[in-house]
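Appendix B, example 12.
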Amino acid sequence: MSETKPCPKYKRIVLKLSGEALREPGSRDNISPQIVQGIAAQIGEIHALGVEVAIVVGGGNIWRGQAASQRGMDRATADYMGMLATVMNGLALQSELEVLGVPTRVQTAIEMKNVAESFIRRRAMRHLELGRVVIFVAGTGNPFFSTDTTAALRASEMGAEVILKATKVDGIYDSDPKKNPDAKRYTTLTFGEALTKRLQVMDATAFSLCMDNKVPIIVFDMMERENIRDAVLGKAVGTIVTGD
């Protein structure tokens, strides 16, 4: 007798991956093939459940525009370089997904015809409807905007039901858990509570977009193997921020 396929809580999601998450701790390699393979496998699992998956990937493992600007580089130039770093990460993730047989498209906010599709909202939505994973790279195409803001913007444009923010921490705390062993982790928060308590969920622009468009955010530890799947299935994972 065949096993019943789990029923996902969310039909369409945006998965936000930091660039740093693709690097092996202590390694000189900016992109770890093993880590990318592991992430691709998790994405493949939720794709097999029928979930429409869009991904926004950062580039901090290769280049951080803000850090470079603090060392004297022109901020706009540094940010454009950071956008190019996200393209490299997106292509690496696409490669591993397609090895697993998951159809994938990379859409870039900066035109580069020989590398990826240019971002077109309706085309991206059609890819999702056809069961293709869409990876959004090059941020919003504009300097001074983070990939958190890109995730919030694309989630709003795509009509995603939730943003899954995969981090190296298992949720949102009232203080830095690395510095305070007594830090309290929240399981649920409202947007209002997060603002009042000044909790660092996303940068201000991204957070405002999610709040205005009523897109919930789930913050969780991506190093736990089942977390992406469990979050999609509606299980208690990390911290969820909602408008309720």
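The longest helix spans residues 75-99. The mean pLDDT is 93.
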